[in-house]
Amino acid sequence: PIPGKRNAYCIIGLRAGLGEGGGHGWLLAQQIVHGEACYDTWCIDPRRFTSHANVEMTSLKAIEDYQNEFRFHFPHEHRPAGRPAKTTSLTSVLAAENAEFTVVNGWERVEYIKPSADFHPSLSFHFDETFDIVAGEIKNVRDNVGLCEVNGFNRFEITGPDAYDFLDRMFCGSVTRKPGRVGLGYLLNDFGMVKSEATIANIPASDRGENRIWYGSAAASEFHDMDWLTQHINYNEKVQIQSLTNDQTILLLAGPKSRDVLSACSREDWSKEAFPWLSVRECFIGFSAATVMSVSFSGELAYEVHVPNASLYAAYLALSEAGKTYGMKLFGSRAVESMRMEKG
């Protein structure tokens, strides 16, 4: 489906239209007639690209693709056309710390911290020169504490008197309704196939707003999940969904000393009794308003610090200053991916 269009469908990303047209046309026809294809069609779904993928960028990427038609695309090779498309106030700050960037849904996201500004690993299908660098980042998270910017994470705010009944119908498991708690769930289609995975965070009413639910999922699912959710709101349900994806950024604090760092820059009680696993609360990091969740994809004690982009730099400075005492270092997405695989 084409995002934002009713009864409009297309397949994009093909390089041999005539040769592949029969099979892809068959899958497209299934979507039009039945609403779903028999195979996963995400790799050719136009909704995997979001607002940054305009005509100008598409032209640059198409030219780059044909220029490299007979070259292998290596792991961790990030080609330069159409970059940088999306950045935060920390992008230049982290670049000054020798950050190497990958691209996630157009966002420049830290991949790892280079040992020097002129460091360039070889492109290979084997382990390259970054292996020990990433291992060092993981070791510091395991033994001390690390900080990572996770920008572009998909974030919807769901409100309305029927919000919980709507989510109970959409998720295949029960959705927690307890204030200040976080849950994980899966959205399925009519064939029982997974459409999305999302966290649900129940934020109690405060001076920042009424009771509301935060829905979080992968960056690339921004358009896809919004389509799936909005098209399933019944005509008599009072549910509102607002995207905060481009308004908030996560600072991920991970490691056994992460609670100490958080306590040093926020006056809340961060003990495990006051703020247990799978909790969410609004607070201040330094003087910056933030929403913190006690969740982890690293296998270590960790907190997601969600900060409005306008005060992101201030929150980063507060955490960085607090982390000096505890050996805090920056880490990137490669370390995150390695740790989450080990966690299982």
TrEMBL record:
Any one of the GO CC terms = mitochondrion
The FAD dependent oxidoreductase central domain is annotated at 34-87
Domain GCVT N-terminal intervals: 91-344
The protein depicted here goes by the name FAD dependent oxidoreductase domain-containing protein
Gene source species: marine metagenome
